[in-house]
Every structure is written in C-alpha cells, then in structure tokens.
C-alpha cells in the first residue's frame, strides 16, 4: 500500500469526506467545502494520482486499492460524499470499511455502473475509447473536452466550465496512469449488487440534464437502493454543486443534519 494521502480539512463537527471525479481534483469542491464547513468538519482529499497526491499511486490502481487508501488516510468515522467516479470509491468504502466508520453515504451525479449496456443507460463505450486515445497525445486537451461534456445540459454551461477550470487548475495536472486506470475503472466497475447492502443513511443527488449519468439511471437505482433518499435537480447537469450551488447546499445540509445527529 502506498503512503497516506494528503488532505485538507476545515470546520468542526461531523466529518464529511469529499471525493472528486475522474480528471479533476478536490479543488472543484472548494466553494462547497467552505459552506459546509460552517456546520461540519469537511475533509477534501485528492484521489491517488490527482492534485496534491499526484505522486501517490498504489501498486495496483484499482477500485479496492483506491478505497482502502482513502479510508486509511481519513482514519476517523465520517460521511463519504462521492461525485461521479468518487461515488464508486465511496460505495466501496461503505461496503468494505468497518461499519461504525461510515456514518453516511452520499452519491452526487454517480452511477453504480457507468457504461451503456443493453439493459443499462450510461456512457457510450466509444466515448471512453476516445478519451483513452486522446490521453496518449494531450492530457490538458482531453480534460478540457471532458469538462465540456460534464456541463452539457446546464442552463449556464459556459459559466460552469469556467468556474470548474478555475478551481481545479490551481493544482497540478493528474498523473497519466491515474487517468488511464481511472477510465478502466469507469468502464468495468459494477457496484449495482452492492447498493442493496448499504445499511447506513444513503442520499443520492442527480442532475436531470446529466449526459454522463442519464436520468433513466435514477429509476433503475431506486429499485436497487430501496432505503436511499433522493434529490433531483431539474436544470442541473453533471455538477449540480456548481450549477445549483445554493439549492444543493440546502438539501445536503438538511439531510446531513437529519441523518448525523448534528444540528
């Protein structure tokens, strides 16, 4: 196992761990962390190979190893909030960590299975293949294209892209291996069967206009995670904590207060 991951924390109270998605870093959560930090202890952590942890890579860059490294680095009971790829990591932690160490699970614009299949809506395999090909040529250009796809459907797409770029560009570009292996995880990880086993408080938050996690996923996951709570932002895309910031914070704060005993 690689060394512990670096992370930052602000605020006091119940710990909330924020896990970002593919290609970005914890900087994307900065406005959210500051706001949540008024009521909770917010832990922002870059996944292995990203941001402040760009040089910290496990020997095997797989979902189980990422989850274990995050969990061991946090080393205290916490709510885990995972956005996109971060949702897979958060789910893995919720399923494998000591149950008393996971106070709650929050999914943000994530899916238990990201790739489109005959019985499941998702990302077209050829799009992931295109990202693989582009990574070999130009990491920056690949990530820029990915940001545009994430914001598609938002009512203020240009502003969303600009804000995300400003937040994440304050940190180093991701490690190429982390990006390539992260695409493999997105293409292969299937946590659908795990969702029925989640016993802690579980909140799912989606953008109705999300092109990476289509709205058809919502009803399918409803039947897999019958004990979860649900929030759908009608005019949001893949980053509702950016495009619908105030509404997102209000819903999340209320759920955290109701489900963690923090008032």
From TrEMBL:
Binding-site positions, substrate: 22, 84-85, 146-150, 238
GO biological process: biotin biosynthetic process
E.C. code: 3.1.1.85
Active-site annotation: 84 (nucleophile), 210, 238
Compartment(s) where it occurs, according to its Swiss-Prot or TrEMBL record: Cytoplasm
Origin: domain of life: Bacteria
The UniProt record lists the keyword NADP: no
Gene: bioH
Primary location recorded for the protein, binned into one broad class: cytoplasm
Classification via NCBIfam families: bioH
Subunit structure of this chain's protein: Monomer.
Pfam families: Abhydrolase_1
GO-annotated cellular components: cytoplasm; membrane
Keyword annotations from UniProtKB, A to Z: Biotin biosynthesis, Cytoplasm, Hydrolase, Serine esterase
Domain AB hydrolase-1: 15-244
Family: Belongs to the AB hydrolase superfamily. Carboxylesterase BioH family.
An MF annotation (GO) of this entry: pimelyl-[acyl-carrier protein] methyl ester esterase activity
Taxon lineage: Bacteria, Pseudomonadati, Pseudomonadota, Gammaproteobacteria, Alteromonadales
InterPro entries on file: AB_hydrolase_1 (IPR000073), AB_hydrolase_fold (IPR029058), AB_hydrolase_sf (IPR050266), BioH (IPR010076)
Species for this entry: Thalassotalea euphylliae
Pathway: Cofactor biosynthesis; biotin biosynthesis
Swiss-Prot/TrEMBL catalytic activity: 6-carboxyhexanoyl-[ACP] methyl ester + H2O = 6-carboxyhexanoyl-[ACP] + methanol + H(+)
The name this protein goes by in its record: Pimeloyl-[acyl-carrier protein] methyl ester esterase
Described function: The physiological role of BioH is to remove the methyl group introduced by BioC when the pimeloyl moiety is complete. It allows to synthesize pimeloyl-ACP via the fatty acid synthetic pathway through the hydrolysis of the ester bonds of pimeloyl-ACP esters.
């Amino acid at each position: 196992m690689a060394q512990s991951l670096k992370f930052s924390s602000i605020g006091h109270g119940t710990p909330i761990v924020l896990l970002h998605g593919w290609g970005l870093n914890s900087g994307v959560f900065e406005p959210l962390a500051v706001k949540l930090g008024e009521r909770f202890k917010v832990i922002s952590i870059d996944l292995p190979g990203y941001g402040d942890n760009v040089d910290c890579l496990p020997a095997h860059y797989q979902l189980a190893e990422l989850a274990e490294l995050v969990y061991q680095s946090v080393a205290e009971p916490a709510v885990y909030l995972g956005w996109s790829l971060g949702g897979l990591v958060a789910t893995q932690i919720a399923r494998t960590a000591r149950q008393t160490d996971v106070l709650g699970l929050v999914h943000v614009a994530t899916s238990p299975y990201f790739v489109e299949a005959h019985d499941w809506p998702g990302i077209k395999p050829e799009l992931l293949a295109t990202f693989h090909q582009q990574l070999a040529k130009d990491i920056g250009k690949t990530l820029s294209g990915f940001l545009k796809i994430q914001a598609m459907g938002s009512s203020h797409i240009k502003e969303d892209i600009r804000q995300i770029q400003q937040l994440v560009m304050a940190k180093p570009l991701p490690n190429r291996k982390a990006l390539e292996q992260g695409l493999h995880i997105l293409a292969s990880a299937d946590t659908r069967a795990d969702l029925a086993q989640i016993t802690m408080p579980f909140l799912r938050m989606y953008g109705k206009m999300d092109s990476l996690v289509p709205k058809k996923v919502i009803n399918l996951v409803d039947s897999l995670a019958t004990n979860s709570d649900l929030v759908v932002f009608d005019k949001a895309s893949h980053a509702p904590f950016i495009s619908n910031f105030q509404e997102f914070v209000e819903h999340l704060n209320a759920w955290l207060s109701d489900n963690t005993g923090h008032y």
